[in-house]
Amino acid sequence: MKIAMIGTGNVGRALGTGWAKKGHQVIFGSRNPHSEKVREVLAAAGANASAAGIAEAGAAAEVIVLATPWNIMEQIVESLGNVAGKIVVDATNPIGPGFQLAVGMTSSGAEQIAGWAKGGRVVKAFNTTGWENMADPIYHGQPITMFICGDDAEARAVVAGLAEDLGFEVTDTGPLSTARYLEPLAMLWIHLATVQKQGRQMAFKIVKR
Length: 209
Ligand SMILES: NC(=O)c1ccc[n+]([C@@H]2O[C@H](COP(=O)([O-])OP(=O)(O)OC[C@H]3O[C@@H](n4cnc5c(N)ncnc54)[C@H](OP(=O)(O)O)[C@@H]3O)[C@@H](O)[C@H]2O)c1
Hints:
There is one protein chain. This protein has a single domain, classed as Rossmann fold, CATH 3.40.50. Helices cover about 40% and strands about 20% of the residues. The protein contains eight helices and twelve strands. Strands 3-2-1-4-5-8-11-12 form an eight-stranded mixed sheet, with helices on both faces. The site of NADP nicotinamide-adenine-dinucleotide phosphate (NAP) has 22 residues, from helix 1.
């Protein structure tokens, strides 16, 4: 697929590199697509990766993945222009001042993004684990769980496939409003990894019987 990876930080690199290595065409959308940093990202991602400005990357892709800070998210979505019909993957967490969730309970960051990305088929994914786990989601030979949600079943299926391409096992949690649960779950991961000092080599996995 043609994927626009918006943001070339920790998450953008992990996801974009993984998909490029799996044969997807990845266009990194950056504020500075010709920077030394982006050149390094492209060198690591290989032949299937390219870089462009944010609007250009989004326009060229079928799937747009958002991996930028929350405080500029509305501006980023605006700069993408018309996203109607495109799959917009929200990999972010709406973290505000004091490292608290800035949205919650009766809405979510993902739902806010859906309001800004008019006509976009928004799917929440990749927010509940650290970037290191996006680069390598296998623990003791077993895939860890990636939770996804969204209101468009076809878009969820596409994103589930993209998560599986990286090596995740997917749990589809249903409509986009379940992002209200997935965003606090991400805060639990961050709390365990940092405040509780369990480290970042840790992940959530659903087990069943
Ligand atoms: N870090 C994790 O493990 C993790 C896990 C799950 C979810 N998340 C979420 O994913 C998002 C990205 O996290 P990250 O760790 O990848 O962040 P990061 O390393 O700081 O990278 C963010 C990227 O966003 C782009 N960007 C565009 N406009 C920006 C602006 N005004 N200020 C700063 N950066 C701007 C930058 O790429 P260009 O310079 O190329 O424009 C930057 O590299 C956040 O919403 C975070 O909550 C992070």
